[in-house]
Amino acid sequence: MNRENKRRQKDPGYYRTHRCEEVFTCKVCGRQVVPEGAGSGHRNHCPNCLHSLHVDDRPGDRAACCGGIMEPVGVWVRKGGEWAVIHRCRRCGHLSSNRVAADDNPMKLMSIALKPLALPPFPLERVEELTALMGGEGSLKE
Fold it and tell me: Which residues form the RNHCP domain (predicted)?
């Protein structure tokens, strides 16, 4: 890549209007990440471990000076049924949402989606008691 192309990539908004063609190594799992297979023109996280880097203030601007590891902490469903990964920066706590890519690890996505069910904020042994306290019958029997 020549100097002119490097300079062009650093222009504000370059990544918003140009396809991501960079190959990079994931800072968390060490896997080489290629742009092919993402299903879109923008690769913004590792398809294996779903981690990212905090490089954007707004999608594609490359203006964040933090550079911390963006950890996948949740998933949500966008309008139309499309899934997105919620990332939180380990360094500054910034939250962002990124569309799920076509080649993302489905088991990792499911484990993130099921985490709230596996680790509820109350003891499962007390579900009936807590339901009764809220005015419900508290019984699972019909």
Answer: 22-110
CA-wise closest residue to 82 among 98, 61, 103, 93: 98
Which residue is it, tokens 């049924």? 81
| SS3 labels along 35-69 | CCCCCCCCCCCCCCCCCEECCCCCCCCCCCCCCCE
* Region at 103 (left for phi over 0; alpha for psi -120 to 50; beta for the rest): alpha
Q: What pLDDT, in 10s, does the model give residues 32-48?
A: 887 766 555 567 889 99
| Kind plus residue range of the DSSP H or E element containing 85 | strand 83-89
Return the pLDDT at 69. Answer: 93
Buried b (16+ CB within 10 A) or exposed e, 89-118: beeeebebebbbbeebeeebbeebeeeeee
Phi and psi torsions of 86, nearest 5°:
-95, 125
Which of left, alpha, beta for 47 (phi over 0: left; psi -120 to 50: alpha)? Answer: alpha
Q: Give residues with Cβ within 8 angstroms of 101, minimum separation 6.
A: 37, 38, 39, 40, 43, 45, 47
